[in-house]
C-alpha cells in the first residue's frame, strides 16, 4: 500500500507547487530551457464584506502582493489594503477563466500575485479554476501557490441568523450556469430527504429568476410549511439585510445575487429573532 | 401573509436581544422588577489555529471583553489577546452546558463577555447552546448577543488541500455522542448518493474509535475505490499535517480529534498534491 502524501508546517507557509508529486520525473522541454519560477500566487478569500470579518492572512496577502486581480467589486472591497505601488487588475463577472489565466501568468512571470474573491475563494470561488490552470503547466513553469481561506457566505449569514448550521448542513448552488437544473434538483431532494440544514448560494439573479421558487416547491415536498427560513443579503456591508420567514411564505423576489438562503431542518427552531439548530439529534422535537 | 421580520445594519453591530420578537408583549414578573440588562455576550469563532486566520472582529471581541470563557485550549489559542485586566474562565470538554450558562449569567449581570470556540462557534460549536440559554430567560434579563463568525475547520482544511469544496458539499459530524449512529449513517448514505463532497468533523477520538472505519465502508458502497480523500490535522498550528489518500486506502488510525476528513465526489480530481473539485457539473468525467 503506498504511503499517503504528507505535508507539515504552518497554514501560512507556502505549500509546494501544485502538481509537484504527480509530475516529478516526467520530462518536458520547458523543464530544461528555463530557470525555475520564483513567483507566488495567493488565492485569497476576503470574507463577506468590510475589514471586520477579514483574516490577518488575507490582509497580509493582499498588502504584500505586487499584482492584485479580481472582479472589480472585490478589488473595491479591499481598497483599504492596496496602493499606488501595486498593479490592480479588475475584471468582469463571466471572465473567470481569463482572470485565472492572467493571475497564473503573472505569477509565472515572477511576481507576487493575489487573486481575490469575496467569501472563501475555495467555495464557489476562483480557487478551483486557478489551481487547475497551474496544474496544466509544465513543472518548471509553476509558481508557488497557496489558498488563503475566508469567512464563507454561509457562515457569515448563519452568524447573523443565530446558529442554524450548528449540526450537519449542506451548501448547494442554485445556479444552473455550470450544471443542468436536473442535477441541482436531484441534490436538493437528497439533502432535503436527509434532513440536513441547507445553505443556498446564488439563489436568484436577473438571468435566473425562477430557480429559487422551484427549489422552494421541491423542498416543500419534504419539509413542513413552518420550516424556518432566513435570507441574508449583503452580509457585512452597509446594505446588509436579514429576513426571517418560513418555507411556505418564502418570497423568491426578496432574494438577489448577494443573498444566501438558509433553510432549517427538523432540529431548527425560531427563538425570537434567531434561527437555532439543536446540537443533538436526541432532542425532543 | 405576515411581513417577514427584517433587520438591517452592519454585521459588527450588536443585534437586538434574542427573542425580543417572540416574547414582546408577554408579561413576566422579572420584567417589572429589574432594570434592563446592559451586558453583552459575544460568541466568538477564533478560526483554526493561530492569529493568521482569525478575523479582526474576533480579535476585537476578545480584547474588549471583561470576561472570557472557553475550553482551556481555546483560551490558550487567544492568549495573545487577553491580559490581567480580564477574568479568564477556562473549562473542560463535556462542560458545554455549564459553560453556556456561566457565560450567559455573566452577561446578564452586566459584563461584556466573550465565549470563545475554535473554528466557527456556529458549526458544531457553542452558539446553539448559548443562544438557547439566552432565549429561555425572561425578556428583561436578556443581554445583547452577537455571533462573530470564524474560519471553520472544513474551510481551513480545504484551503490546505486545494479546492475540494469548490461546488456543493456537506458537513457531517461522525460523533454519536449527541445522535444515534443510525441517524449519522443515514445522512452519510444520502450525501454519498447525491454525490456531494463531504467534510467529516469529529471523525475519531479515543472514546469513538470505530466510526470513521464504518463511515469509510458505507461511503465505499457509493463511491469508487480511487475517490480522493484528504485528512487535515491541526490546521494552522505548528503540528499541522496534511495527508492525501483514497477512499480504499483511508486508514482511520491516521485521524484524531483534531482531524477533518474531506472525501471527494465525482468531480474531484487529484492534481499533484492538490484536491480540486470542478466548478461545473457539465465537465467531462
Distance N to C terminus of chain A: 47 Å
Indicate the structural class of chain A.
Answer: alpha/beta
General shape of chain A: elongated
Q: How many H/I helical runs of chain A?
A: 9
Average residue pLDDT of chain A: 88
Determine and state the CATH class of the largest domain in chain A.
Answer: Alpha Beta
**Which spans of chain A of ≥5 residues are poorly predicted at pLDDT below 50?**
1-29
Tell me the strand percentage band of chain A: 15-25%
Largest interface by Cβ-Cβ < 8 Å:
A-B, 108 and 108 residues
CATH homologous superfamily label of the largest domain in chain A: Tetrapyrrole methylase, N-terminal domain
Number of strands of chain A: 14
Which second-level CATH architecture of the largest domain in chain A applies?
3-Layer(aba) Sandwich
> Into how many domains do the coordinates of chain A divide?
2
Listing every helix as H and every strand as E from the N terminus to the C terminus, the arrangement of chain A reads EHHEHEHEHEHEHEEHEHEEEEE
| Helix percent band of chain A | 25-40%
* Oligomer description: homodimer
Estimated radius of gyration of chain A: 21 Å
Give an overview in words:
The structure is a homodimer of 285-residue chains. The first copy, chain A, is of the alpha/beta class and 285 residues long. Chain A has two domains: 20-151, Tetrapyrrole methylase, N-terminal domain (Cobalt-precorrin-4 Transmethylase, domain 1, 3-Layer(aba) Sandwich), CATH 3.40.1010.10; 154-277, 2-Layer Sandwich (Methyltransferase, Cobalt-precorrin-4 Transmethylase, Domain 2). Chain A is built from nine helices and 14 strands. In chain A, the strands form three sheets. The first copy, chain A, has a five-stranded parallel sheet, with helices on both faces. In chain A, strands 8-9-12-10-11 form a five-stranded mixed sheet, sandwiched between helices. Chain A is elongated and about 60 Å long. The termini of chain A are far apart. The model of chain A is unreliable at 1-29 (pLDDT under 50). The interface between A and B is large, with 108 and 108 residues. Strand 8 (169-173) of chain A pairs antiparallel with strand 8 (169-173) of chain B, so a sheet runs across the interface.
Amino acid at each position: 500500500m503506498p504511503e499517503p502524501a504528507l505535508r507539515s508546517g504552518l497554514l501560512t507557509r507556502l505549500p509546494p507547487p501544485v502538481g509537484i508529486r504527480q509530475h516529478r520525473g516526467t520530462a518536458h522541454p520547458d523543464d530544461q530551457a528555463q530557470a525555475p519560477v520564483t513567483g507566488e500566487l495567493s488565492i485569497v478569500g476576503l470574507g463577506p464584506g468590510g475589514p471586520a470579518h477579514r483574516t490577518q492572512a488575507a490582509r497580509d496577502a493582499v498588502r504584500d502582493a505586487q499584482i492584485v486581480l479580481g472582479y472589480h467589486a472585490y478589488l473595491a472591497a479591499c481598497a483599504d489594503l492596496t496602493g499606488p505601488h501595486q498593479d490592480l487588475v479588475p475584471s468582469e463577472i463571466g471572465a473567470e477563466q481569463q482572470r485565472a489565466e492572467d493571475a497564473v501568468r503573472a505569477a509565472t512571470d515572477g511576481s507576487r500575485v493575489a487573486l481575490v474573491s469575496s467569501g472563501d475563494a475555495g467555495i464557489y470561488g476562483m480557487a478551483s479554476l486557478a489551481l487547475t490552470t497551474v496544474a496544466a503547466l509544465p513543472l518548471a513553469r509553476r509558481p508557488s501557490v497557496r489558498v488563503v481561506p475566508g469567512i464563507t457566505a454561509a457562515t457569515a449569514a448563519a452568524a447573523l441568523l443565530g446558529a442554524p448550521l450548528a449540526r450537519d448542513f449542506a451548501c448547494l448552488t442554485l445556479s444552473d450556469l455550470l450544471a443542468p437544473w436536473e442535477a441541482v434538483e436531484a441534490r436538493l431532494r437528497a439533502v432535503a430527504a436527509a434532513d440536513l440544514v441547507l445553505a443556498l448560494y446564488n439563489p436568484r439573479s436577473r438571468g435566473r429568476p425562477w430557480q429559487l421558487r422551484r427549489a422552494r416547491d421541491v423542498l416543500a415536498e419534504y419539509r413542513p410549511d413552518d420550516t424556518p427560513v432566513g435570507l441574508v443579503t449583503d452580509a457585512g456591508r452597509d446594505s446588509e439585510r436579514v429576513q426571517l420567514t418560513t418555507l411556505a411564505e418564502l418570497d423568491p423576489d426578496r432574494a438577489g445575487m448577494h443573498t444566501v438562503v438558509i433553510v432549517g431542518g427538523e432540529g431548527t427552531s425560531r427563538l425570537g429573532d434567531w434561527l437555532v439548530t439543536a446540537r443533538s439529534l436526541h432532542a425532543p422535537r
